[in-house]
Amino acid sequence: MLGDDEDVFDSVTWDSPADPVYQASQTPSGPGFRQSTVGSNEAGPHDPKWEGYLITSVKDPVKELAETKDAYVSYLVSAKTNLPIFSTPNPSSRRRFQDFVFLRDNLVKDFPACVVPALPGKHRLEYITGDRFSPEFMERRRLDLHRFLQRLSRHPTLQRSTLVRAFFESTEWHVHMHQHVAHPPGPEPSSGLVDNITDTLLNAFSRVRKPDERFLNMREAVDKFEEGLTLSERLWTRSRNRTSDGDPESGEDLTADYHDMAVAVQGLGFLESGITDPLNHFSNTLLEFSALLRHTTQTTTDPFLTHLHSLLTYSHANRAVLKLRDQKQLDFEELSDYLSGVTAERDRLAAVISGRAGSTGLGLGAYLRDRVDAIRGADDDRSRVEKMRKLDIKIKELQDAVTTAHETSDAFSDETLREQTIFQHAKEAEMKEMLGNLADGQIEFYKAAMEEWERIIPLIQRIRVDV
């Protein structure tokens, strides 16, 4: 196990994962990981700490109960880890999609301050034909679930969750799910005065009155990042549709245009008996190039678009944490205002009872309350004393609630600052992976295209044209 002053993170450097780098003075943490040399005296108070590594994978989708109406797909989830919470360094099990849903939903409940990635949505499978048991669908979902677990494994808190451990190790997962729902970790949710107050006061239109500049800058950075992802997705989708949208009649399928051009050149070769062979070779090259474009779309562009949108949903989860932090601050501000109002009412009643003040000068609201009390016959001192007693009790409860809300808001802010550092690490790693795969796919495409065209050039050059 690594020391508490050592950070571990996978793939945040720009070194190749195939060539991991380890510090000689540290215990190797595992393949693909590089440990930080920053000591605890140099680390900031909001810097995350990784206690070890967790490398996850999702493989081998299998259709279970294939001949029944209850058929489903299971996936082999496995991991390599040195985290002490795991009982084995190589846990594995088979899980279905609903198990992933349970894992994600309960991690959100158990760790509200953590950026828990979203699961793949069904609407993002527009490039896949066939039903949910088709090989294309199962492979696309496997990749999405693989990316989901990778994001969990890169999080220093989520990777050490007992629910994550059970997800990989438990042989009685359904029993564990039932126990987790029946006895969730953490304090029991409370209900009472404070909950009723916050439910009444807070609404979707409330705004934090004293925003923290740090979190304003974070939200601005998130806005710019998501704007860039959305624009990139739109442009690459347009490029993809113009290259190979699968509909030759759309007039924008470049692969179909190359195919039609190949047919036309082949027909021209039958008319030009002297150069039939070179033209046929040229036609075949056009067909090969058309197939190469379609292959690149399927193996490079489509996965890039899927990863791009997945990263966008991951950023939405990060935005949700920032919004929840604002909600915690808003709880504190609204409770403080409510406490001030109750205290003012208590002081007003005390002044009326002591004869130091009447309704005059205490505002329209106080005057109206006095008039209503007079009509109801509750304007005598005995009624006012009873009201004061109840207000004193409420003030005590509110003071405790305000103190708790303030502590909760501060603690949540600290956790959010750590989460932003963790998300930044994860974002850098995924951007490197996503753009690296795109670059590799484009390089492979252009190399193959150059080879195809270079083979045809000598044949074209041997054509002799009499002038």
Automatic annotation (TrEMBL):
Membrane topology label: Peripheral membrane protein
Location of the region described as Disordered in the Swiss-Prot/TrEMBL record: 1-50
InterPro entries documented for this protein: AH/BAR_dom_sf, PX_dom, PX_dom_sf
Pfam families (alphabetical): PX
PX domain: residues covered: 53-175
Keyword Cytoplasm: yes
Membrane-spanning intervals of the chain: none
Source organism superkingdom: Eukaryota
Alphabetical list of SMART domains matching this protein: PX
Polar residues bias spans: 23-40
Compartment(s) of residence: Cytoplasm; Endomembrane system
Family under the similarity heading: Belongs to the sorting nexin family.
Protein name: Sorting nexin-4
The organism of origin for this protein: Marasmiellus scandens
Top-level taxonomy: Eukaryota, Fungi, Dikarya, Basidiomycota, Agaricomycotina
